[in-house]
Amino acid sequence: MNLIFLGPPGSGKGTQAKRIASELGLLHLSTGDLLREAVKNGTDLGKKARKYMEAGELVPDELIIGLIEAKLRSGEMDRGFILDGFPRTIPQAEALKEMFARNNKRIDKSILLDVSDEEVVRRLSGRFYCPTCNLGYNYPSQLPKKDGVCDSDGSRLLRRPDDEEEVVKNRLAVYKRQTEPIVDYYRRASLLATIKADVDGPEGVTSRIMKEIKKLQEA
C-alpha cells in the first residue's frame, strides 16, 4: 500500500500518517525527517541539502526526489509507504510520478484530510507552551485547566511566533495557492479520497482513513 497524505497545516496529517503507518506496518516518509537524516548521515544529497537549509532557503525539488528515490532503491519502501509533506506543488507531483515510473512503483491513493479554514486557524493559533517547563498545550485535545496558565508550574503560557493568528492565515493562503492544486491533480487521476478531519477527534479520523484503506485492499 503506497499512500500520499494531503491537507492544510493543522489538519493532523503528520499525526495520522504516523498512526496509519504503525497500524499497517508501512514506512512513514516525512520530507523534513528525510532531510535531517541525510544531513546527519553526511550523504552526498545531504551535503547538498544542508547548504540550502543553513541558508534558510527551500531545498530544490530534485534533491527531495533524489532522497525519496534513494530510500526506494534501498528497499525500505518495498513494504509500502506513506508520503507526508510531499508533493506540495504540481511540478513536484509530476517529478514524483516520473520517479516512480522509473522504479516500477505507483501511488495507490492520495488521502486528503479536509479541515475548514476556521478550524485550521483555531488549531494552530491555539497552540501554546510553558517557557519554564516547555510543556505544550493545544486546542482542542490538550487544554490547560486554567486558561493561559501552565498546569505544572503556573507560568503564563506563550504562543510561538509562527502560531500567531495572522501568520497562520498567511500559511493557509500559501497552502491554497501552492498546494491545493495538488488536490485537483489527484482527483483528475482518480486517486483522491477525502476524509473529514475536523469532527470526532483524532481517533475518529483514523477510523475513517482505515475504512478507506480497507476499500482499496478489497478492490
How do the helices and strands line up, and which of them pair or pack?
Blueprint lengths: L1 E5 L6 H12 L2 E4 H11 L2 H11 L6 H14 L6 E4 L5 H13 L6 E6 L2 H8 L2 E3 L6 E3 L26 H24 L3 E5 L4 H18 L1
Parallel strand pairs: 1-3, 1-4, 2-3, 4-7
Antiparallel strand pairs: 5-6
Descriptive overview:
This protein has 219 residues and is of the alpha/beta class. It has a domain at 2-115 and 191-218: P-loop containing nucleotide triphosphate hydrolases (Rossmann fold, 3-Layer(aba) Sandwich), CATH 3.40.50.300. 51% of the residues lie in helices and 14% in strands. The chain is built from eight helices and seven strands, in the order βαβαααβαβαββαβα. It has helices at residues 13-24, 31-41, 44-54, 61-74, 90-102, 117-124, 165-188, 201-218; strands at residues 2-6, 27-30, 81-84, 109-114, 127-129, 136-138, 192-196. A five-stranded parallel beta sheet has the order 2-3-1-4-7, sandwiched between helices. Strands 5-6 form a two-stranded antiparallel sheet. Strand 5 and strand 6 (136-138) form a beta hairpin. Helix 1 crosses helix 8 (201-218). The two termini are 12 Å apart. The model has no long low-confidence stretch (mean pLDDT 91).
